[in-house]
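User: For my dataset I need records formatted as: sequence, then structure tokens, nothing else. Please produce one.
Assistant:
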Amino acid sequence: MRNPTVSLVICAYNEEKYIGACLDYAIKNGKRNLCEIIVIDNASTDRTEEIASARKGVRVVREEKKGLTRARQRGYEEAKGRIIAFTDADTLMPPNWTETILDEFKKDTELAVLSGPYVYYDVPKRDQFLVRLYWYLLAMPVYWLVGYMAIGGNFAIKKTVLEKMNGFDTTIEFYGEDTDIARRASAFGRSKFKPDFIIYTSGRRLENTGIFSVAFTYVVNFLSEVLFHKPASKDYRDIR
């Protein structure tokens, strides 16, 4: 990929509190390397569309069928770039995030999908420390063992790989969808989880549900996807 183009897709449902800052960071830190920024408004009933549309250069697409994987699928169908990067509406893109994507895909022609960890910007220091332990003591060894891993709010994937995968599995509601992406993409190239390819995100789910409960749910669904190729959890709760 000598001159890869990158589309940024942000899936959003009732994210009026976060979407403005998310887009401001994306425009400031990533727009020079992006061919487009697309917000998939996933049947929001608040001011998400209004706020996103007010940002110059941002295209808002309405997807009436609610569901994260359905929003991802619509983003894939709308995107023009050869690489599609996905973030969540409550993320803050750090400097050099898009540069890392370009560098990784340019230097490794076999790379199918690139991902990395979250850094939570609004949780207590104790929880931040526990999350770091989770990434380095649990997630990374498991990734080395299994060979693939992805985080849904922080990954980039070749569009040709998505085509070969027949897009996203829209039967998955929420949990396990990122592992499903990494697992299926790894059949068509390398799946890389890079510890320093971070994105800042809200820890609202950790604070609302509890850090240990969230970690347990993600681990169970990761293992279920790896072993049985389907998530263990069928239901999920929006945290807004």
